[in-house]
């Protein structure tokens, strides 16, 4: 298996490979989910920029993996909407227009408002308690300044809220859009003021859910998703 030292001795890294290598070689060879996770995080954090071509050979070598599992991982990221597989260009980090982002956030807002109404009717107390546990873990990461850990739990909470509606079709459509907006939603937490505002909105969401206060829950989710657009619109 390639090692980072062998790679450095034998090759000159391009920009993409340098950034991947900086995160360390993937050690295990049950690779698929690890490669997907590694590349997804690099896209979310902006290390791989929208429109950037992903060169298979240097990227694979820097991660310590062969081209076959890397290509399978890129196909998975393409199915999530984070990568495009363009004929003649290979894999490219997907780039959305401002209108794309706005339109998807409008749909997510509508879906989460609907899910909130259904959840207040059908969710069990145990289901709601699990959302509270996720929220408390997310708050701990916020207080520790651990942005990526916070973000991943943030996205899990949004998915969990939709899942409380017990409508698998709604959950599936929501998951598709949420996957495409991973980088955009991450940008929405940049800066202490934006991050604090997003955290406060989540506090209100969970409190309203625990009370099954449907009108308040719908209101604060709508506000949260509207503010999500305001927090990212200048960055896209």
Automatic annotation (TrEMBL):
Residues 29-96 form the HTH gntR-type domain. The keyword NADP does not apply. InterPro entries: GntR_C, TF_FadR/GntR_C, Tscrpt_reg_HTH_GntR, WH-like_DNA-bd_sf, WH_DNA-bd_sf. Gene3D superfamilies: GntR ligand-binding domain-like, Winged helix-like DNA-binding domain superfamily/Winged helix DNA-binding domain. It comes from Rhizobium bangladeshense. It comes from the Bacteria. Signal peptide: none annotated. Keywords: DNA-binding, Transcription, Transcription regulation. SUPFAM superfamilies: GntR ligand-binding domain-like, Winged helix' DNA-binding domain. Transmembrane segments: none annotated. This is GntR family transcriptional regulator. The keyword Secreted does not apply.
């Amino acid at each position: 298996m390639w090692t980072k030292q062998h790679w450095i001795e034998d090759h000159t890294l391009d920009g993409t490979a340098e950034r991947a290598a900086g995160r360390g070689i993937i050690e295990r060879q049950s690779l698929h989910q690890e490669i997907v996770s590694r590349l997804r995080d690099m896209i979310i954090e902006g290390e791989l920029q929208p429109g950037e071509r992903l060169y298979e050979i240097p990227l694979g070598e820097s991660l310590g993996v062969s081209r076959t599992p890397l290509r399978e991982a890129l196909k998975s990221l393409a199915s999530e909407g984070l990568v495009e597989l363009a004929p003649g260009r290979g894999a490219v980090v997907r780039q959305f227009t401002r209108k794309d982002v706005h339109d998807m956030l409008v749909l997510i807002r509508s879906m989460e408002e609907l899910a909130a109404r259904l959840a207040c009717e059908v969710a069990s107390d145990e289901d709601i308690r699990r959302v509270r546990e996720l929220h408390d873990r997310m708050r701990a990461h916020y207080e520790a300044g651990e942005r990526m850990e916070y973000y991943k739990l943030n996205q899990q909470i949004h998915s969990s809220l939709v899942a409380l509606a017990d409508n698998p079709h709604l959950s599936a459509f929501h998951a598709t859009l949420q996957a495409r907006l991973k980088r955009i939603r991450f940008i929405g937490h940049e800066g202490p003021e934006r991050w604090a505002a997003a955290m406060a909105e989540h506090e209100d969401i969970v409190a309203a859910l625990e009370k099954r206060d449907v009108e308040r829950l719908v209101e604060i989710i709508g506000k949260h998703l509207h503010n999500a657009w305001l927090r990212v619109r200048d960055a896209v």
